[in-house]
Amino acid sequence: MPVSMMAIYRRPEGGEEALETFRRRYAEEHLPLIREVPGLRSIRVERIAHAFNETDIVMIAELMFDNRAALDAGMASDQMRAAARNLREIAPGLATVLVLEPEPLTPTTGSSTVLDVLLEPEEDSAQQASGASLDAGFGRPEDDK
Known about the structure:
Layout: E1 3-10, H1 15-34, E2 40-47, E3 57-65, H2 68-75, H3 78-90, E4 95-100, H4 114-119, H5 126-130
Antiparallel strand pairs: 1-3, 1-4, 2-3
Helix pairs in contact: 1-3
């Protein structure tokens, strides 16, 4: 089962100049090191284009591996150690790194995702009749009572 490692990067101190320096060094120095990690199947790097809440997150990178054993081997490699040293130099304390495994509830086939299913309005829903938002109250502590 595919697994991934995700790195979430926060904005460096020093304004736009520091951010552009980080992005340039990430692209020119860090990514070439990451591409050499054994077992890495793909890498996806995304800039944060918009946030619905205030955040200091500016970029997310996802490294995909065939399975947990491949990820563990890649993490233990000399190439990953070199990439980690580089990251500590170009983004000290700015990254949160997570290992992700597919959630069993997430469909792996078909065209819809869990989010698509959750957001599809029902024909006769009480929410539509009342005009309430589909996400009204979702995730608030008072909803758990």
